From TrEMBL:
Residues 1-23 form the signal peptide. Pfam families: DUF4344 (PF14247). It comes from the Bacteria. InterPro entries: DUF4344. Keywords: Signal. The keyword Signal applies. This is Putative metallopeptidase.
Length: 279
């Protein structure tokens, strides 16, 4: 089984675990009683999944895997089970974009994950890691982070949630929270997301960095993810802190991370509580 196939297969499971931790109905319960999911989807709006056809040979392989695994369908249903969505048709889609990207389109009520982003994650995993497990973990972390990040943009738009500071920083925080709350596997995937930003920073030409961009710099994003992981359990993640090249966090930042985790997680929980079906 290829890295792509293994990662795509595990994303639906881990996404379901994260949404269940936040109040959605477990996947097994949905499968045991499909009527429950149908009735929830019918109350208000609902996400549907669209796996678009592709022209590129590699992307065609991805479409085949996604359709076979029904990954997008599981994730979309997880969103529906978790959220009280306003009336409307919402879409979670994968498609060719011509670039490695993902985005939320408020006019179309659509989250798009580009096939090029998935293949880019696989390529970076092959370049930077040696074991199949490391590659799997990296790709899965990138995919989960992307899905939760774009879901964050969608939630801010759909519910008109307030944000103080950069919206992209806020949805990075939400993505980290969702992964961390899965448990040990999710915490590892959050660190893989941090690793992906360290890798991206290493690939960047510092003379052409877009300081005007709505996103924080890749290294800043990496440290922010690592800070939230460490802050969620400082004793468990004490090894993340140090002053060597292999360390995720310098001591000067780590000292503030427990408080940062407490504030960020409490803020997002308060913002989302009125919009969750479990509330």
């Amino acid at each position: 089984m290829t890295v792509k196939m293994r990662s795509i297969a595990v994303v639906a499971f881990m996404m379901g675990a994260a949404l269940t931790a936040c109040g959605a109905e477990p996947m097994a319960a949905r499968q045991a009683d499909p009527a429950t999911s149908d009735s929830r989807s019918g109350a208000g709006g609902a996400f549907s999944a669209v796996v678009a056809d592709a022209k590129d040979d590699v992307n065609q392989e991805l479409t085949k895997l996604l359709k076979e695994e029904k990954t997008l369908e599981e994730v979309a249903q997880g969103f529906n089970d978790l959220l009280k969505l306003p009336e409307g048709d919402y879409v979670l889609a994968t498609e060719e974009c011509g670039q490695a990207n993902a985005f939320w389109s408020p006019d179309d009520k659509k989250i798009t994950i580009c096939y090029e982003l998935l293949t880019d994650a696989v390529a970076k995993a092959e370049e930077n890691f040696s074991t199949e497990q490391e590659k799997d973990d990296y790709v899965t972390g990138v995919l989960l982070d992307t899905l939760f990040h774009e879901l964050g943009h969608a939630l801010i738009s759909i519910y008109d949630l307030p944000t103080v500071g950069k919206e992209d920083d806020a949805v990075d925080q939400l993505s980290a929270i969702y992964m961390i709350e899965i448990g040990e596997a999710g915490q590892n995937y959050a660190l893989q997301a941090a690793q992906s930003y360290f890798i991206a920073a290493g690939d960047s030409d510092r003379d052409s960095l877009p300081f005007y961009d709505e996103h924080s710099m890749d290294e800043q994003r990496a440290y922010n993810y690592a800070c939230l992981v460490y802050g969620s359990d400082p004793e468990k993640f004490a090894d993340l802190v140090g002053e060597t090249d292999d360390s995720y966090l310098p001591q000067a930042r780590a000292e503030r991370c427990p408080e940062e985790w407490a504030k960020v997680s409490a803020a997002w929980n308060k913002l989302l509580e009125p919009h969750l079906r479990s509330s």
